[in-house]
Amino acid sequence: MAILGAINPMLTVGLDGNNAWRLEDYLGRGGYSALKRILAEKMTPDQVIAEVKKSVLRGRGGAGFPTGLKWSFMPRSFAGDKYVVCNSDEGEPGTFKDRDILLFNPHSVIEGMIIAGYAMGAARGYNYIHGEVWEVYTRFEEALAEARAAGLLGKNILASGVDFELFAHHGYGAYICGEETALLESIEGKKGQPRYKPPFPASVGLYGKPTTINNTETFAAIPFIMNLGGEAYLEAGKPNNGGTKLFSISGHVNRPGNYEIPLGTPFSTLLEMAGGMRGGRKLKGCIPGGSSSPVVPGEIMMGCTMDYDSISKAGSMLGSGAVIVMDETTCMVKALERLSFFYYEESCGQCTPCREGTNWLYKIVHRIENGQGRPEDLDLLGRVTTNIMGRTICALGDAASMPVQSFVKHFRDEFAYHIEHKKCLVPPDVQRAGSGFFKATV
Amino acid sequence: MLTIESLQRIDREIAKYPVDQKQSAVMAALAIAQEQQGWLSSEAIESVANYLGMAPMAAYEVASFYNMYDLKPVGKYKLTVCTNLPCMLSGGVDAGEYLKKKLGVGFNETTPDGKITLKEGECMGACGDAPVMLVNNRRMCSCMLPEQIDKLLAELE
Cis peptide leading into A45, omega within 30 of 0? Predict the structure, then answer.
């Protein structure tokens, strides 16, 4: 995998795959200069947070919550331990940007987390890394060792009197741990089942202490914001959508991979960067922000720009920036069936509407796909989703429901065809050819 | 039950957490125990729990919640194929079918010689390299078209 293209990049400047991730490479790119300046100039935590607020950096994990605001929720006067946690549990289908950030630029995340710790008065942090990407975990541990040896991490960082310790914690196969409170449970050595909110982690987080959790890419952006200044970072994107962002493109494109572009870049430009549609076929639908975001029909997607506001206007979410591209060889019922199976499989089982509801969603879509659908099933699917949404502790129930609602809404005819004719609108051999596994023939 | 080497590795994990939070090391400790034994027996889970000073049932809850732990013996190689949507669009499902046919086993089954266990996996966070598969929870294999799968199978001795 690699970063395959960029427009005005920041996070990926000077990276060279597996050849330039070490501390000396990062220092050569100006790394740790933001941290050094903050410590040398004795910037106050409030000044750091003000700069992050000015940048309008929005959380890159999926929710898009303003990072500076989140940091300001941490109780300043709290006397005990506080924690900074990085969410690298990247398991949202379609998303693979944090993997590349951590593999090719791990020190940018470390520097971002140290600055975050300084700004929020936290002296300890954890990076929770997706269990399936083991090489990322081992590399991050190596990078931590380099930073410690250079006096950038640990007690009395660069003789400033500031302490910050950081450790890597690995997951072992549970999508739900990407939910921030499930992630905290998991670090505490328990099943990853989400907690009720409130209290929010800023008051009661890891080990019951105030905790801030941000996504990997969010932390990686912090050194750039501190170096450029918040305003310049904001201007690199568009109003209310500061900076550049990594987009992970997968599915039916010629060059799937990661691309860093300013927020507000047209989708058509991004698609072109990814080599265009495989086989020159037509874009049927696109999931613009990871599997939990509603699907957008191709023609609407072609008119979107890649930022939080434009994608939201198109009825979806920018989410994690995971763009799943589907061409006309895709059976939308089969696509939804696989996603529904995923949410059923990954529901933690804590809340009845989600545990039972995701099972029903999968069962119903499965029977439609297998020629046993009933005419009333489409309305039934809608009813099941409304009985899940808003009735669960965490967002997984909503995440399972939104694909169902949007697929049925935008491709209702295709679902109805399945039910009436007991087969796919897209012939199986066309679907097979579309995957490119066997030599493509369409 | 746990070897000295495993215990030393677990100690390094315990050191990452506050002194009164040894249980935080349970995920890493279970992974280490599984590496040592090939799978997680009840005895292995219990010795991890005892070492960390937690109830065996609490450790079992963790072992049974996360899907990369194997609570039953698996073959020498565990091959987990991602069939989730992004991989499916680039042949993940086809790759699963191809492997089933080649190995003569279904998902969650082991070849008669005990060499390979085939599993269906969920998103591994590497969709740009689809289809992807994981060998023994550690080695990620990218762009697994028929030729690459054949090569991998020939390598797994």
Answer: no
